[in-house]
Every structure is written in C-alpha cells, then in structure tokens.
Amino acid sequence: MANNIQAIRGMHDVLPDQSPLWQYVEQILREVLGTYGYSEIRLPIVEKTELFKRSIGEVTDIVEKEMYTFEDRNGDSLSLRPEGTAGCLRACLEHGLLHNQVHRLWYYGSMYRHERPQKGRYRQFIQLGVETYGMSGPDIDAELIILMDRLWKKLGIRDKVRLQLNSLGTIEERLVYRAVLVDYFRGHLDQLDEDSLRRLETNPLRILDTKNPAMQALVANAPELMDYLGSDSLAHFKTLTAILDDLGISYEIATRLVRGLDYYSKTVFEWVTDELGSQGTVCAGGRYDSLVEQLGGKANFAVGFAMGIERLLALIEVSGHVPATRAVDVFMIRVGDAAEREGLRFAEAIRDQVHGLKLQVNCGGGSFKSQFKKADKSGADYALILGDDEVSRGELSLKSLRNDQGQQTLSQQQVIAFLQDYMPQSTQSN
Ligand code: ATP
Ligand code: MG
Questions:
Q1: What are phi and psi of 40, to 5 degrees?
Q2: From CA 100, how far away is CA 262, in angstroms rounded?
Q3: Which residues make beta-bridge pairs with 335?
Q4: Of all atoms in ligand 1, which is nearest to the CA of residue 115?
Q5: Which residue of 97, 190, 256, 405 lies most exposed, with the fewest beta carbons within 10 A?
Q6: Structural domains in the chain, sorted by start
Q7: What pTM value is reported for the model?
C-alpha cells in the first residue's frame, strides 16, 4: 500500500485545538484596526513574478532564493506571494485608488517563502499587513506604531516586545552613505562572507542586515546612515520620536536596522522580542514612498508594516495570556426515536432564542452511556438530556458537567430561560 501523503515541509495545519487561539487573535486584530478606521483589502495569492522583482528588488533574499516561482499553462512566470505590500499597491494602482486619496488598509493571509524551516520560520506563514497611502508626514508613521502598541496591550504582551526605530533617509542620502559604506567594507574584505562580497557590488546596505554571527563586530563598527541624513529626513525622524515621547511609547534607535527589502525610505521599524530565540522579529515595516513610482504610479506616499502571526501566537503562548476557549457550551443527548426528532426541533428553537450559544447535538445514535461520555469529552458545561419519556412530558433534563449539582428536570421554556441567563457569563469567560 502506498505511504500516506504528508504536508509540504514548512507548511502547517492548524488543528481544531489550536484554532480558537487563532480566532481570538484575529478578532482582536480586526477590532483594533477598526478602531483606527482601517479597511480590509483582499488580494490574490498569486501574482506575476515581475511584480515582486520590480518592487522587492532583484538583489534580496526573497527574490534571489525564497520565491515559489512557476510557469503556468500559458508560459507566464507567476509566483506565490512572498509578502503583501507589492500586491496591495498593485491592486490600488490598478483600480485607481491612489489618485488624490488617502487610504488606510489591511490584509491578512498566507505568504510563501522557500526558506529553511525552523521554529518561527516557515514556508507558508500568515501575515497581517497594514498599508497606508497618500500621507507624507511622520504622524501617520506614528499612528501605525501607536496602533501596534495598543494591539500588544490588548493581547497582554506589551512587556514582551521592544520597538526599534531608524531612518533610511532618501535615495540620494543613501547613495552618499553607500559610497562611504563600500569604502569601509573594502578596507575589511577579508572579513566579508560570500553573500556580503556579492552584495558589496549590488546592494551594500544589505550587508548590515546580515545574520552571520562572524560579521556582527564588523557591522557594529560600520559608519552610521543617521550621520548622512539631510535636514528633511532628520526633521521627519525627530517629529516621529517626539510624538512617541508624547504618548509614552518607548523605542530604541537602531542605526543598523535597514530591513530586508529595498523599497524603504525614511522611517523603518521593527518590534522585536527576546522570547523566541533567533526568530525575534514579530513585526516590521516602514515608509516606502518610492515604491509607488517604481510600480508605475504617480509619485505618492506610503507607509506600512507586516506582522508574522505564527510568531505573534508563539509569543502569546510564552506569555501565558492564552484565553480559555471552548467549542461547545451545551451538549444534547437524544435517546429514542421521538427524542431524536424532537431534539433536533428543540435545538433549533434554542439557537433561535439563545444568541451565540454553542450547542452540539449528538448525532449517530448510541446508548445513553456512550452519549454521556461524548458530552463529557466535548468540554461542554451542560448536558441536555432528552429521552422518549421526557418528550412525552414536554420536558428535558439538564445536568452540569462541571460540578455535581445533580440533574434538574425542566420544561422547554425553562431550559431556554436558563440558557439565556447562562449565556452572558459564558461569553465573558470565552
Ligand atoms: P526575517 O529577518 O526574520 O527573515 P524578514 O525581514 O524577512 O524577516 P519581513 O519580510 O519583514 O520579514 O516580514 C515581516 C514579518 O513576517 C517578520 O517580522 C516575521 O514576523 C514574519 N515572517 C517573515 N518571514 C517568515 C517566515 N518564513 N516564517 C514565519 N514568519 C515570517
Ligand atoms: Mg527573511
């Protein structure tokens, strides 16, 4: 017999015992984004490869070695999206959303990168992406950070993340700095690894982003981009930090934070944690004004960030702030033909009248004892028991599965009143 087929390495199933945590986080993300007036945009998972080459940059880890690229049946080169910024901007340009307008958008979904799978690094992973368009000032940069600060607080992990902040200046300022940096690295060629030697010609700033421990000292002593910024970039950065100071949001200025993507300018930031080993960046973003033109639009302004949801979940688990959730509040046991028919009808009446109650009805028959076992296993608070006797009397039995209060016999109307009373407290505990 053939072996069972397994999932692709680095691509994971979220099993039913894990999905409540996902749903809880997704609900909070939506809620917080809503309170700032952000709208959802839904985008395709596959785009033309050219889009990513033009936006992310040819000389980046993503485009050089991480993309899932394939030819479709027409011979077009397509790629699974490795990130969402490019597709989001593509969509907004395509639908004319950027003309004299401002937008605050978010999307949520899977991204694909052919990386070496390890804890916190997968080949399919979920990102929340937030992108804003049409706003040039540091106040919108600050708003994104403020929004995230609120999110960490809501999730109970504010003390687990730190904000690192830098400015990459303008393209012109980076060119000047680039020459200085290349000179510096040329003076230490013997300490550069193979990737960095290549990047010295193509994209020397990316050397600062190296994860090679052997190069950390060299990178730490490199000249700092902050010293080459012009007055406009410096003023932008200063206002941003002043807003954060005003709101009491602390940050570290990380002069070597360059981000892995080529399209950033001025503000860049990362939220990092020490709790997840080397995959410590939970959320990263910045300003990328130049990308709009790069993709064929009129000059415009853009700032955004992306958050890795698997890393966020891991952090919530480490912090212990995992909410208690349960799939079933009440489990209905039906024994006998009349009870089976009446049970289904009454279950619908309950669902009509008790908003939000998670009621699971036993299906597939079975003895009272075996159904009771299932009720217990379901994690429900209560079992509702319906036998043919109860049906003939128009009654049900209700039994707590959490304590030994014994069994009560109630009319259908009493059951509904009881469950209506139970519901608000159950919602609160969820
Ligand atoms: P890293 O430096 O960890 O490779 P990155 O700079 O490539 O991250 P971005 O492209 O900025 O990451 O993506 C934003 C966020 O998405 C990251 O901070 C991280 O939380 C998450 N992320 C990126 N790649 C992966 C991956 N392969 N698996 C899980 N999460 C990821
Ligand atoms: Mg990466």
A1: -85, 140
A2: 26
A3: 387
A4: 27
A5: 190
A6: 19-169+229-319 (3.30.930.10), 330-429 (3.40.50.800)
A7: 0.90
